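ok so i was messing around last nite and threw this chain in just to see what happens. nothing serious, just curious
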Amino acid sequence: MEPVVTVAEMRVVDEEAARRGETGALVGRAGAAVARGALSMLGGAYGRRVLVLAGPGNNGADGRVAADVLARRGARVSVEAPPRAGGGPADRGGRPAVGSAVRHLPPVDLVIDAAFGTGLRGGFVAPLPAPGTRVLAVDIPSGVDGDSGVARGAPMVADRTVTFAARKPGLLQGDGPDYAGTVSVADIGLPIARARIHMVEDRDLAELIPRRRRDDNKWSSAVMVVAGSPGMAGAAHLCARAAFRAGSGMVRLAVPGMDLATVGIDEAVSIACPAEGWADRVLDEAARCGALVIGPGLGRSGPTGDEVRRVVAESPVPVVVDADALFALGEVVASIPARSPLVLTPHAGEYRRLVGRDPGPDRVEAARLLSGRSGAVSLVKGPTTAVAAPAGDVLLGVAGSSALATAGTGDVLSGVIGALMARGVTPLAAAGLGAHLHGRAARLGPAEGLVAGDLPDAIGRFLAEVRSTDRHGPADGRRAVTGGRGPAGRR
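result:
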């Protein structure tokens, strides 16, 4: 997993480097990395016109070093101070407030934004490059908050950003992805082993999901799914299919008050449950499984809520709490008394009901807030999905897209997470890996008109593809934590 470092964490790392007398060397390496990024964008330096906006502090110093390197390579470089920082949030087009004075830059081949970086507090109305001018940002586009990704004022839209040591959360969430362009990370020799946030990558699916052992059987990764209700059988169908495709050897499916023959999952084992009073039966069946998923399409009646709360509290195995089961937990979630680990998976509306406020653009902060209040692993959905553990560790899934904004995709995700936990992955890692797998699978579907039913088979295909290219994945499920590569492993 790739580390992601907050502004506060990076400040501590910089201060420690300064005490060791390393600041000058680090600025030299950072400036050289920026210059390399500029050369790759320009296709060479000789005769190219480059304008560097170099502000105060290390960000501006990085830009000035890059300017010197490019000038020595034959570029025609000018260095200018940026306009004074200030201004509120940008609108969606990145335009400054009405009446703001905007400075226009002369025509050049490349503008290097080394104005303020992550140290800026407040907004920045950037000067406007000439049409067609390419922009390279240093660390983060000036005016984009390094943690939340919120754009304040009118930042310059970069074609590329060279960031140092590790990505910052603001490059991955909020407005950050729209302003940063292609992001590359330059290793300048700063230690980041203490990062609490990590971004999930494809290779993590192969490395952290245990392969089946030679002596495994269907019970080795069994999942109990409690989902669906009259008129909502599709939710149960999607959740169960997804669990199978994510590697569950058996799905035991309970749809309270329904004849399971109408659900249409031939491989699932039907567990007959009455419309009310089904908690005892579910708890008995769950004891034979590795994980339980509860909530998709279950309904919101008072008796259903009572049964959900009992199952969540008394389940003998880890529980994924989704959809209508989240509704049953209450309007403002407090620490949930539970026998086993829980994973909460709210979308924005469900989050609002649980916490009493919108998640906002900073999904890292939102997930940590919910996890701290509930005592559960909390997955907060969005263009960037954040998964937080009560201790504060966070995994980010950035593979999602607006194609997933369609009915039923959340039911698929809950089934995937349940299957991964049943395979022996920790709740935090299962939720983070599940979000990444869910997003990557969506890209195998149609470019337009993706529906939730497309996802389960795509999940199986993508997971098999990742496995086929991995030569070092855990062959027997005994590998627990990938030393130093992030908060993951088996429970």
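not much to say yet. The radius of gyration is 25 Å.
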